[in-house]
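To fix ideas, we quote verbatim one protein's residues and fold tokens.
>
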Amino acid sequence: MIKINIHTVDDSEEETIDVFCHEEHKDRMQEIAREFVDGSHKITCKKNDKTYRIRLDDVFYIETVDERLFIYCENEVYENRMRLYEAESLCVDTLFFKASKSMLINVKKIENMKPSLSGRFEITMINGEKLLVSRRYVADLKKKMNL
């Protein structure tokens, strides 16, 4: 059984995560802490003339179409003025990977995947949407998925 202790600190103090675990759980605890930290990052975007701050953890994928950046969540699509490489820099060290020259995908939102034609991969997201990973980026996908 794992005991959880949460302590609050003043706004002037830095937030920290300290984990005490058995050696055999070390890697999994590191992974859980990283997912928590990565999921707390946010991206600013717009929809219907309103500005929103969306948690990266809630984003399924990010795509550029006709030089416009779109942020796809489970049921909503937002827009941002960034270029894809700028969004990619926000997602560095997170669970996103580059799937093509115009798309970043959140691996936590992948339900399943299978090889497709010409060395590409077809991904089905947890909301049922299907996306393609370019042959050039399949190795990145496999690395992120520990395959």
Notes: Residues 26-39 form the longest helix (14 residues). The CA atoms of residues 68 and 81 lie 7 Å apart. The beta strands are 42-47, 50-55, 61-65, 68-72, 77-80, 96-100, 103-106, 110-115, 121-125, 130-133.
